[in-house]
Amino acid sequence: MDAVVRTEGLYKEYETDAGAVPVLKGIDLAIGMGEFVAVMGPSGSGKSTFMNILGCLDVPTKGRYFLNGRDVGTLSDDQLARLRNEVIGFVFQGFNLLPRANLEDNVSLPLVYCNVQKRERTKKAVEMLEKVGLGKYAKSLPNQISGGQQQRVAIARALVNDPKLILADEPTGNLDTKTSNEIMQLFRELNLEGITIVLVTHEPDIAAYAKRLVKFVDGMLTYDGEVSGAHA
Amino acid sequence: MTGQMLIEAWRAMGANRLRTFLTMLGMVIGVGAVVLMLAIGQGAQYSVEESISSMGSNLFIILSGSSTSGGMRMGAGATPTLTVADAQALSELPEISAVSPAVPGTAQVVYGSNNWSTSVYGTTPAYLTVRNWSVSEGYPFTDSDVRSATRVALIGQTVVDNIFGSEDPVNKIIRIRQSPYLVVGVLSRKGQSLDGRDQDDTILIPVTTAQRKLFGTQFQGSVRFIMAQAASAQMMASAEKEMESLLRQRHHIQEGAESDFTIRNLTALANTAAQATRVMSIMLGAIASISLLVGGIGIMNIMLVSVTERTREIGIRVAIGARRRDIMTQFLLEAVIISISGCTVGVLLGVIGAAAVNRFAEITVVITGISILMAFMVASCVGVFFGFYPARKAALLKPIDALRYQ
């Protein structure tokens, strides 16, 4: 299986007043096409930094990162923007929808940045909203729907440009258990359609939806293997 | 993409209407002030230039009597004042294109049951050339009228209005100090002079008629002043020198003695006035531009606040694939929209204000397409200039910092 994500000796340190503090201390990881990976670890373990690097939002201090076979370190800002646009879909804990735009516009936003025509954008956006079960809310504003529904919209937005990889950073952190399970069910369905998913979470119940578990402690990988949980 | 960005800019501006309105107001006032001040300045310039061209170009006026030696020497009786013959001699100088002597006075004129007091000029047909004046109806009197001192008159529009009303004055007989004069023509309307006199309140008659029949003269052929026009602006200086030496010679004035006449360069005076208004007009524009600058700073201020407020939104956009230049374009577009819509309203208000000034203060205002076009160009530049820094700040935000911003 082709690796969608491959890191070699990924090392990241932050400059602070007390000197350089290493956050990631050499991560070697490969994630193949169609995998569903849960990333766990205590606060400060480096998992968020790792996700930011995977999402091309941050760059490693040392080491290399191949996304879809391309060495991200050699790409320009514009090329990175294009990767984020076409290869990656983001789902955040806080949903991060634009409050003043209706759901349809929110979902079609990634298409705006790759110059898709208006009519095509609307068609695609409505299609994605229907896929996450919110087709009839296309013209509503984000504050008119519930948190779970907002997260579905965010997922629709992540899906709209047919990404290879979905990065979800604590997607259920702001949701109740029932809604969380619904969202995770949705992720599982997407994964069955062949989309690679990397998910950061605190909760073992949530991680149990994944097929593979990766644990971070103090910037190092301490576990990489099967998920052993109730929901598996 | 541009369409979508316009919609988003509109949405962002609509999200805080009062703030957008106040920011725009800065531009409105700035542009309005510039348009109004330019209109007033250009209006002043226009009316001064109009007066100058109505006065005639490259003009000298030669007054009899020296300003310093006064009446005593003249009163001795030996010194001749300026005469028609002097005017004749001056007109033969190569630097001089036209000369007209003048015997001015005031007289009561009567037509039918109307009467009017006006200034009467005894002069020659060349006066019309010198003053750049034309006859709108009838014909001017001729040199032969001057030679034979006939009682003919050219009358100004104000005189026509006051004694003829709507009647056609040409070939009518008017009475000037009881004597009958034939109206041969009507002078075209000239309006106010630089010093505010009504130039149309006048009657022109042959200089000889004025000397012999209307006002009389102290000496044979003497005139009060002579107007002379130089052939070109370049010849003004040499014309003045030539005229002075010719007149001194004709008046037998010895070397070193003071002249018994004064030559004044009217065009130089007028040019000074024109320059003064030009300076005033530039100053008005400059002062108004300061308010435009302040409006621009207002835009920058609000855009900076807006960038800070929308940091998270910028983060989201970057995460889903916006390039730096997309973010930059978005914020620049907002700044330019604010400044251009402010400018449009400002131009409207400026034009309305100018019309009001024209109506109520009775000041000439001139609004040119160029000044409006310039206002628009300056406003877009202000938008781009003051929008650039905030837009750049937005575009250079680090995506992770922007996303984490609360």
Q: Strand order across the biggest sheet of chain A? A: 6-7-8-3-9-10
Span from first to last CA of chain B?
28 Å
- Rg of chain B, rounded, reads 33 Å
Task: Indicate the mean pLDDT of chain A.
Answer: 89
Give a quick set of tags describing it.
heterodimer, A: 232 residues, alpha/beta, Rossmann fold, 6-stranded mixed sheet, 4-stranded antiparallel sheet, 7 helices, 10 strands, 32% helix, globular, B: 406 residues, alpha+beta, 2 domains, 6-stranded mixed barrel, 14 helices, 57% helix, 17% strand, elongated
Structure description:
- The complex is a heterodimer of chains A (232) and B (406).
- Chain A is an alpha/beta fold.
- Chain A has one domain (36-59, 76-226): Rossmann fold (3-Layer(aba) Sandwich).
- Chain A is built from seven helices and ten strands.
- In chain A, the strands form two sheets. A six-stranded mixed β-sheet of chain A has the order 6-7-8-3-9-10, sandwiched between helices. Chain A has a four-stranded antiparallel β-sheet with strand order 2-1-4-5, covered by helices on one side.
- In chain A, a hairpin with a 2-residue loop joins β9 and β10.
- Chain A is globular and about 50 Å long.
- The model of chain A has no long low-confidence stretch (mean pLDDT 89).
- In chain B, strands 2-3-8-5-7-6 form a six-stranded mixed β-barrel.
- Chain B has helices at residues 2-15, 17-55, 70-75, 84-91, 126-130, 143-148, 157-164, 207-214, 236-250, 266-309, 311-319, 324-361, 369-395, 399-404; strands at 59-64, 96-111, 114-123, 135-138, 152-155, 173-176, 179-187, 202-206, 225-230, 261-265.
- With 406 residues, chain B is an alpha+beta fold.
- Chain B is 57% helix and 17% strand.
- In chain B, β2 (96-111) and β3 (114-123) form a beta hairpin.
- Chain B has two domains: 2-52 and 272-404, no CATH class; 66-259, no CATH class.
- In chain B, α1 (2-15) crosses α12 (324-361), α2 (17-55) crosses α12 (324-361) and α10 crosses α12 (324-361).
- Chain B starts with a helix and ends with a helix.
- Chain B contains 14 helices and ten strands.
- Classes of the chains: A alpha/beta (232), B alpha+beta (406).
- Chains A and B meet through α2 and α3 of A and α1, α11, α12 and α14 of B.
